[in-house]
């Protein structure tokens, strides 16, 4: 099992960039595809982006395509989400997880003001 700790969230105005990090501990991080999800207030958790084990293949939800970039550093057991041109509708708690998903971490809150 991999334990996950998300960080990097905060309060930003619409437009600037933000980078989220997800530090993983446990065995075999590089053997997992990884993904970011988010849950906005009053809504269900939704998929944001995923990345293959080597980092060579990525996939994005339409709502973030062209603005967000997922990446990973297997040497550091960390996956990142670079968020550019953030919008108020990106406000949510952001979570990372393995694929298939396992236990959820505490997430990191991103609040984007207009």
Explain this structure to me?
By secondary structure, the protein is mainly beta. The protein has no helices and ten strands. The protein has strands at residues 2-7, 10-13, 18-26, 33-39, 46-51, 58-60, 68-73, 78-83, 92-99, 108-113. The strands form two sheets. Strands 2-10-9-4-5-6 form a six-stranded mixed β-sheet, with no helix packed on it. It has a four-stranded antiparallel β-sheet with strand order 1-3-8-7, with no helix packed on it. A hairpin with a 6-residue loop joins strand 4 (33-39) and strand 5. The protein is globular. The mean pLDDT is 95.
Please write out the topology.
Blueprint: E1 2-7, E2 10-13, E3 18-26, E4 33-39, E5 46-51, E6 58-60, E7 68-73, E8 78-83, E9 92-99, E10 108-113
Parallel strand pairs: 2-10
Antiparallel strand pairs: 1-3, 3-8, 4-5, 4-9, 5-6, 7-8, 9-10
Query: Low-confidence segments, ≥5 residues, pLDDT <50?
Result: none
Which radius of gyration do the C-alpha atoms yield?
Answer: 13 Å
Note the main sheet: 6 strands, mixed
Total count of helical runs of at least 4 residues: 0
Shape by Cα distribution: globular
What is the β-strand count?
A: 10
Mean pLDDT: 95
End-to-end separation in angstroms reads: 39 Å
| Adjacency order of strands in the biggest sheet | 2-10-9-4-5-6
Query: In percent terms, what proportion of residues is strand?
Result: over 45%
Structural class determined from secondary elements: mainly beta
The H-and-E topology, N to C, reads as EEEEEEEEEE
Query: What portion of residues is helical?
Result: under 10%
């Amino acid at each position: 099992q991999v334990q996950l700790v998300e960080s990097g969230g905060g309060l930003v105005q619409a437009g600037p960039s933000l980078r989220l990090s997800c530090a993983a501990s446990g065995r075999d991080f590089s053997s997992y595809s990884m993904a970011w999800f988010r849950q906005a207030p009053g809504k269900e958790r939704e998929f944001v982006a995923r990345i293959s084990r080597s980092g060579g293949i990525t996939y994005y939800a339409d709502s973030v395509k062209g603005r967000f970039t997922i990446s990973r550093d297997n040497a550091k057991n960390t996956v990142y989400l670079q968020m550019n041109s953030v919008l108020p509708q990106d406000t949510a708690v952001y979570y990372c997880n393995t694929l298939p998903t396992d236990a959820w971490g505490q997430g990191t809150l991103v609040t984007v003001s207009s």
